Design the sequence.
């Protein structure tokens, strides 16, 4: 098998702070294969961007090893730079220039001649549908248009791997959907993509394989499908307000049952992950009846990546995101 | 070779900004004109005051003004730098294999061209007001002013890159601006100053440039003060450029 495009071994990055050392990235092992979209999912501050910045030679690791396209990020930063594309959170397109000028300059900085750069720029204008605005000054672009230009800049020189840091953050749903389509198109054209996101749906929709990171450590890794199935085929959510003691007894009894794959307890409800909801529901209801528990609500869903996240970290990424939105 | 190629590309990127929006050059031209029209008439009465050159007052005043134009044009470039840090442009370039020196030099060269245009334009405008240019001396002065501009523009760019925030940059550049201006001897010659002030002035690159500039504009090229100015400016320029290149290499945003 070919060598992984991105390979890290026990990668670490620490930041000093007033409260002591923050272990932003605390021993990460990753491997990204050629041609895949690798998703890096985690909440804000989990260490995603720090990892990406180390891989893109913008930051020096404090420990461990990382190679990109076969080159060591610390010892051969020049070689790594030649082989990667990187689109940071703030994009990178130059506002006072036109989209086309941005693209041509980017190509020429990687050593293309003017003609080559022009040709490649026109290819990308077509591929990423930039033709309506490529001739305009970037100041006039909408957020979504600018993001597409940013991505085009990242692949101008046909890199071995394209790093996308939170590519759809700040975009409205329509532009997000559009960018997803563009990213899938890139994948289909053979570009290896390493993207970070804190959006569950995004990681699910785009990644061939993903790693979940929390507090600087990887807590799960695999294809979205396998990760979700590990949790269970169906998720039965039972609403149980103000019945905490009885609920705990129920959980203890349920844990002994073979049809239960796993259980996560939330303040107001229980998530029961089972192989088949239809087969196990009568038994669960019966047990609830025996325990004298009043059923307040029940829903059956397919597990999402949030269920995976919840099970691995003990908290829900969706709730955390919602909390952060509220604080803003 | 590759570095030169990179510098050329990055210089033209910034130059295109100027050419698209020449208004900024016109604005920077207005500052010296305001000095010329609103301040230089006050100097007329000073002819013959000790320490002012006995001849034309403008010949004392204009070279100092040119020095300050060169100094300030470089000092304030940090603001554009911060803008490019925030929009991710700097980061994008830092991920390319472009030489770190070229990242700095492309910007500084554009500032140099813009500033020289303003300075030459201004020297020409001052002629009808009574400013005498000694051509060879003026050319040497342009070299000295270029060194000064390269130093302040490199410093301003690196400062923007390191601070990444206008609110942190402002107090520093404003804090440098006024003392350098006053201690340069541009408004009144430093020879009028008490000793302690003169001692402090000797740490001010603009002071050396102003002193030398007055001699050069009058055509006195082989003077000790001219040599002193170059002796001070050449090493300072090298040190600041090396430091600023390092900032591009290390910056973490």
Sequence:
């Amino acid at each position: 098998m070919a060598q992984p495009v991105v390979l890290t071994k026990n990668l670490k990055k620490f930041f000093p702070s007033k409260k002591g050392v923050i272990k932003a990235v605390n021993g990460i092992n990753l491997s990204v294969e050629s041609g895949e979209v690798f998703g890096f999912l985690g909440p804000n501050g989990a260490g995603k961007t720090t990892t990406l910045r180390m891989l893109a030679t913008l930051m020096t690791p404090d420990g461990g090893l990382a190679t990109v396209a076969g080159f060591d990020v610390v010892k051969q930063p020049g070689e790594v730079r030649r082989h990667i594309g990187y689109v940071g959170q703030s994009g990178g397109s130059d506002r006072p220039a036109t989209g086309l000028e941005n693209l041509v300059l980017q190509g020429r900085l990687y050593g293309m001649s003017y003609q080559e750069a022009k040709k490649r720029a026109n290819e990308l204008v077509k591929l990423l549908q930039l033709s309506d605005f490529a001739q305009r000054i970037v100041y006039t672009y909408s957020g979504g248009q600018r993001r597409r230009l940013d991505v085009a800049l990242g692949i101008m020189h046909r890199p071995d791997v394209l790093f996308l840091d939170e590519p759809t953050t700040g975009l409205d749903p329509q532009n997000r959907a559009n960018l997803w389509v563009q990213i899938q198109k890139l994948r289909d054209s053979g570009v290896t993509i390493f993207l970070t996101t804190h959006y569950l749906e995004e990681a699910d929709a785009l990644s061939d394989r993903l790693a979940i990171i929390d507090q600087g450590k990887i807590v799960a890794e695999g294809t979205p499908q396998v990760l979700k199935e590990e949790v269970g085929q169906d998720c039965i959510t039972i609403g149980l307000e103000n019945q905490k003691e009885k609920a705990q007894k129920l959980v203890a009894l349920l844990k002994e049952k073979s049809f239960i794959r796993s259980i996560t307890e939330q303040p107001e409800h229980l998530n029961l992950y089972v192989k088949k909801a239809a087969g196990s529901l009568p038994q669960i209801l019966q047990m609830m009846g025996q325990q004298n528990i009043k059923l307040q609500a029940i829903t059956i869903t397919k597990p999402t990546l949030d269920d995976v996240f919840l099970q691995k970290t003990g908290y829900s990424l969706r709730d955390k995101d919602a909390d952060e939105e509220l604080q803003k | 070779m590759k570095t030169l190629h990179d510098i050329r590309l990055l210089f033209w990127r910034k130059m295109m900004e100027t050419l698209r929006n020449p208004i900024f050059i016109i604005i920077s031209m207005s500052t010296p004109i305001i000095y010329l029209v609103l301040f230089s008439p006050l100097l007329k009465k000073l002819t013959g005051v000790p320490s002012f050159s006995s001849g034309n007052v403008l010949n004392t005043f204009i070279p100092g003004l040119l020095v300050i134009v060169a100094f300030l044009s470089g000092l304030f470039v940090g603001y554009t730098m911060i803008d490019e840090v925030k929009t991710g442009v700097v980061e994008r370039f830092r991920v390319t294999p472009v030489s770190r020196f070229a990242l700095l030099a492309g910007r500084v060269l554009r500032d140099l061209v813009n500033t020289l245009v303003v300075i030459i334009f201004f020297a020409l405008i001052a002629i009808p007001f009574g400013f005498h240019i000694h051509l060879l001396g003026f050319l040497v002065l342009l070299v000295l002013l270029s060194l000064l501009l390269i130093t302040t523009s490199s410093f301003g760019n690196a400062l923007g890159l390191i601070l990444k925030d206008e609110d942190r940059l402002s107090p520093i550049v404003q804090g440098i601006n006024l003392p350098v201006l006053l201690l340069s001897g541009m408004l009144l010659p430093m020879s009028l100053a008490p000793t302690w002030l003169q001692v402090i002035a000797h740490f001010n690159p603009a002071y050396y440039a102003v002193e030398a500039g007055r001699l050069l504009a009058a055509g006195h090229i082989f003077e000790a003060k001219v040599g002193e100015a170059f002796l001070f400016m050449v090493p300072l320029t090298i040190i600041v450029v090396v430091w600023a290149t390092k900032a591009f290499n290390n910056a973490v945003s």
Residues 2-39+56-250 of chain B form one domain. Chain B touches chain A at residues 6, 9, 13, 16-17, 20-21, 84, 86-89, 91-98, 252 (CB under 8 Å). Chain B has a mean pLDDT of 90.
